[in-house]
Amino acid sequence: METGEYHLEIAHTMQAGRDKKYLWFTVNTLLLIYLAVVGVCFAQTDTLYLYEKYVELNGRRFNRVEDGFKTGKWKEFNIETNNSTLWLRSGEDCHWHDIVSTEYRPLKQGEYNGIEILMSGTDGDTINGQIYYSGYYIKIVNQVPPHKFYVSGEGVYKKNKKTGKWFYFYEDGNIKKVIRYKNGLPKRNFDIFRPDGTIMMEVIKIDRQNWKINKYTETGILIESKIRKINDLEALY
């Protein structure tokens, strides 16, 4: 091989190497961009949207109400209620002390997400030449961010009554209980667990009206056993 051909082959080899590095860089860059976009989309769809006749989560609709009846797939939510904020503002000789409490619910006609409604307030009290205003506002929000709620139960409603298998959860996602319903009432035995997974309570069906409740310590020792009517157990199911 002549010297010119040898140098040309080296140049082609180096160019091929650069092309491979560029291709690898491009592919990885596009992959990172794709993952970033997808990640943003997932984060955005984690928001819970509250509407009058349904809720929306992860792009899907639940909790539909038709002709006043709950129907279809349903999710129960535990939404944080401690949402008060104190706003302190001052001007040259004026001061504002406002308390704003957030209320998560569907919007009514004429409202928008984040609207603040004055519930009560003062026209201004003069103290030592300074004017103080105070107000209590309710901030209406129908978009609940992920850190403000968790799914506490999920199952199906049929004609306003729970039906089939329902799952209930603690905030960390651990199972609290699993109940099988018929016409809104439990149809068989079920257990209630503590957040650590130990059995806290057994609910045992004797007949349609009478159920036995067994309570246990964290170490599994039976400490109480009583028989109750189904109408007295609503808090358990």
Write a structural description.
This protein is an alpha+beta fold and 237 residues long. It has one helix and 19 strands. It has one helix spanning 3-45, and strands at residues 48-50, 55-57, 60-62, 64-66, 69-79, 84-90, 94-104, 115-121, 125-127, 130-141, 143-144, 149-158, 161-169, 175-182, 185-186, 190-193, 199-205, 210-216, 222-229. The strands form four sheets. A six-stranded antiparallel β-sheet has the order 4-5-12-13-14-15, with no helix packed on it. Strands 6, 7, 8, 9 and 10 form a five-stranded mixed β-sheet that branches. Strands 3-2-1-11 form a four-stranded antiparallel β-sheet, with no helix packed on it. The longest helix is centred in the first third of the chain and has 43 residues, at 3-45. The relative contact order is 0.09.
